TrEMBL record:
It comes from Choiromyces venosus 120613-1. The keyword Membrane applies. GO terms for cellular component: plasma membrane. It is a multi-pass membrane protein. This is MFS general substrate transporter. SUPFAM superfamilies: MFS general substrate transporter. Residues 1-427 form the Major facilitator superfamily (MFS) profile domain. The keyword Transport applies.
Length: 456
């Protein structure tokens, strides 16, 4: 449990953290499987492999918002556990496919069920913690991406030794064993994933009230009891800042997924064997986790977000710039992979936390969180076609695209900072659009309320 004021212990995010490690492990383990013969056995020549990566994002993007609505209706421990079980089951089936069509089908359904995990977990965490204490938790949770990458490389290198066992190639065992593990763990998580504060059975009525009150002081009334309608969903998009939040995340998804899906391929180009490739892909992921937690801790301590988006972004730019320009020095290229991973995977959780926790109320937070993650993952489609086989070993096009989108993210962060700073000043001066709202209307406005101040 995580200690808070008045001796009350808030729930740890370890169950969410571990569930996301597993789901992220399964979404990107196709890159590990590719090293162990997936492409050769299923004849995924040309752009077929890239298309297998791309199709994952189609349902992932479309089902983000509906999934968060279902999360609210079914309760988190039910919906997230269902998504996790189905995700594991489909991954196991992926290890049994016999052709290109089979891979496309399983990748599509992986996207369907992972769509509920990321935005749902972000939404849930935001409903428990104040903005000034949220970044460490977001980064610890988000850094599951880094741990999944590191653990995936180690696990794949071990599973790869089973190549030929019972007539199955090593890539099949990667999918089968990791999928079965996820299915088993999903049953446990049904009992330990925490619901929203107002539904948490381990809290007394007085403790539930305390959690609601401490969050109300920070972000206003959550209006949890009000049902969400289609009109409410559409109403969120009348706020231009919501679109900026989408572009902030979108710009970093391209380099992040580009790295996640193609890091083993890039490392392999440096001359390593399949097993060495998996092992050499681990250290950059581990370094990105450590740096992300350092950034998050400092950000929470100084109660500021903006500058902590730009610092990692600049590091990511330096990493991809080196990869773009240096092609004849293995040590420098490998070091640049560290900078690319450290920068991208440290900036992303700050961006997500900054935007999501600045949204007030259940409705705006549920829809805004899903929108940011859903729209942002369009970048995943771009990433899958950025690193093409014909571009190896220099991947000039891929690195150039990654750099361009990182700069887009940086620009969006600057625009968002000035936008919310302007809103705060207008409210301080009493000239805000909703300055004449009644107390009841203010509750429904969430972060649009004239009493609300955005976290910079």
């Amino acid at each position: 449990m995580v200690s808070s004021e008045k001796g009350l212990s808030l729930p740890p995010q370890f169950p969410l953290h571990h569930s996301l490690i597993l789901t992220l492990l399964l979404s990107v383990n196709i890159s590990n499987a590719a090293v162990f013969g997936l492409k050769e056995e299923l004849k995924l020549a040309g752009l077929k492999y890239n298309t297998c990566l791309t199709i994952f994002f189609v349902p992932y993007i479309l089902f983000e918002i509906p999934s968060n609505v279902l999360l609210k209706k079914l309760r988190p421990h039910v919906w997230l556990s269902i998504c996790m079980f189905m995700f594991g089951l489909v991954t196991t089936m992926q290890g049994l496919v016999q052709n290109y069509s089979g891979v496309l089908t399983t990748r599509f359904f992986l996207g369907v069920f992972e769509a509920g995990m990321f935005p749902g977990c972000f939404y849930l965490i935001a409903m428990w913690y104040k903005r000034e204490e949220a970044q460490k938790r977001y980064s610890f949770f988000f850094s599951s991406t880094s741990l999944a990458g590191a653990f995936g490389g180690l696990l794949a290198s071990a599973i790869g030794l089973m190549d030929g066992k019972n007539g199955y190639r090593g890539w099949r065992w990667v999918f089968i064993l990791e999928g079965v593990l996820t299915c088993i763990v999903s049953f446990l998580f049904y009992f330990i994933i925490t619901d929203f504060p107002e539904e948490a059975t381990f809290l007394t009525e007085a403790e539930q009230k305390f959690v609601r009150d401490r969050l109300r002081e920070d972000v206003g009334d959550s209006v949890e009891e009000t049902k969400m309608t289609f009109k409410d969903v559409l109403g969120v998009f009348k706020d231009y800042k919501v679109f900026i939040g989408g572009f902030m995340y979108f710009g970093l998804i391209v380099p992040a997924y580009g790295y996640a899906y193609f890091a083993p391929t890039i490392v392999r180009q440096l001359g390593y064997s399949p097993i060495q490739t998996q092992l050499h892909s681990v250290p950059p992921w581990a370094a990105s986790f450590a740096f992300a937690m350092i950034i998050a801790t400092i950000s929470d301590r100084v109660k500021h977000r903006f500058i902590f988006t730009l610092i990692p972004i600049c590091i990511a730019i330096s990493g991809f710039a080196i990869l773009l320009s240096v092609h004849d020095n293995i040590n420098v290229q490998y070091s640049a992979l560290f900078l690319a991973a450290i920068g991208a995977y440290s900036a992303m959780p700050v961006i997500v936390c900054w935007f999501n926790t600045n949204l007030g109320g259940h409705h705006r937070r549920a829809v805004g969180t899903a929108w940011q993650v859903g729209f942002g993952n369009i970048g995943g489609i771009i990433a899958t076609y950025s690193f093409l086989p014909g571009d190896a070993p220099k991947f000039v096009k891929g690195y150039s695209i990654a750099l361009a989108f990182i700069c887009l993210s940086a620009l969006s962060c600057v625009v968002y900072f000035f936008a919310i700073n302007r809103e705060n000043k207008k409210r301080d001066q009493g000239v805000d659009k909703y300055s004449g709202a009644t107390e009841e209307e203010k509750k429904m406005l969430g972060d649009l309320s004239p009493d609300y101040r955005y976290f910079l």
